[in-house]
Amino acid sequence: MTLNCNGQLIALDTPKVMGILNITPDSFYDGGRFKDEKSILTQVEKLLKEGASFIDIGAYSSRPGADFVSEDEELKRLIPVVTLVRNSFPECLISIDSFRSNVIRTAIEAGAALVNDVSGGQLDPLMFETVGALQVPYVMMHMRGTPQNMQQMTDYADVSKAVFTYFSERIQLAKKHHIKDIILDLGFGFSKTKDQNFELLALLDYFTHLHLPILAGVSRKSMIYKTLNTTANKALNGTTALHMVALQKGAKILRVHDVKEAMECIKLNEALQK
């Protein structure tokens, strides 16, 4: 499995890490921490030095119940940071966490390399057409509703079957729009209960039958800290435990706040495979 990012082929034989850079004031873990050039560049340098292959930049928090952000505000937050990171770290592969096609187009034109869409194209009818025209890798996540109402939409007869059916249908549609490099994200914490999140993680290897790379996004999420009766700030150990499970079950990309620890999981998992 490979991804074509700005003409650079990224092999996924060994799993990769996507480091998170939230430039939102209200993200559940690191909201408001990175709001000036120095703090942003220091964090990006840290993520890259620790081994991140991608830096995922988000300017609209998708946590449950997040505040609405206008497209103009999202662009105003995002594009200067994409330009700053691209100019400071020209080799950095930037992923854009957005469900708006115009935001994606503008960010790719500013130097970003791939798309991370929490809505799987459902919240913008032009998303697939845009990504297909841009010919960039596309992370397709499963979610019902919007960040504002998704946690009221957790009524599934069978969550794993529902997610599998969703991907089967959305993949076909994406391919019709000539999207070539598709990555699947099961959407842990998005329109799912804690128990449903763990059911999906336990069955993650089932989704490898779709023959596309899987991204696991569990870092410091409520499925971890609520189970452990702690907080997102104290959920690193739990995150590491679930990263190992995800890798064992076939995940090819870990989307994380803590790159060093995720890279250690990958290294240990590789040793297990020998």
Structure characterization notes:
- The protein is an alpha/beta fold and 274 residues long.
- It has one domain (2-269): TIM Barrel, CATH 3.20.20.
- The protein has nine helices and ten strands.
- The chain has helices spanning 37-49, 71-88, 101-109, 127-134, 159-176, 194-202, 222-225, 236-248, 259-273; strands at 2-5, 8-11, 16-22, 54-58, 93-97, 114-117, 138-141, 182-185, 214-216, 253-256.
- The strands form two sheets. Strands 3-4-5-6-7-8-9-10 form an eight-stranded parallel beta barrel, surrounded by six helices. It has a two-stranded antiparallel sheet with strand order 1-2.
- Helix 3 (101-109) links the parallel strand 5 (93-97) and strand 6.
- Helix 2 runs parallel beside helix 3 (101-109) and helix 3 (101-109) runs parallel beside helix 4.
- It is globular and about 40 Å long.
- Residues 26-32 have low confidence and may be disordered.
Cα distance spanning the termini: 19 Å
| Backbone structural class | alpha/beta
Low-confidence stretches: 26-32
Number of helices: 9
What is the residue-averaged pLDDT?
Answer: 93
The beta-strand count equals: 10
Helix and strand succession? EEEHEHEHEHEHEHEHHEH
Assembly of the depicted chains: single chain
Specify the biggest β-sheet: 8 strands, parallel, barrel
Key phrases:
274 residues; alpha/beta; two-stranded antiparallel ribbon; globular; eight-stranded parallel β-barrel; 10 strands; TIM Barrel
Fold topology:
Blueprint: E1 2-5, E2 8-11, E3 16-22, H1 37-49, E4 54-58, H2 71-88, E5 93-97, H3 101-109, E6 114-117, H4 127-134, E7 138-141, H5 159-176, E8 182-185, H6 194-202, E9 214-216, H7 222-225, H8 236-248, E10 253-256, H9 259-273
Parallel strand pairs: 3-4, 3-10, 4-5, 5-6, 6-7, 7-8, 8-9, 9-10
Antiparallel strand pairs: 1-2
Helix pairs in contact: 1-2, 2-3, 3-4, 8-9
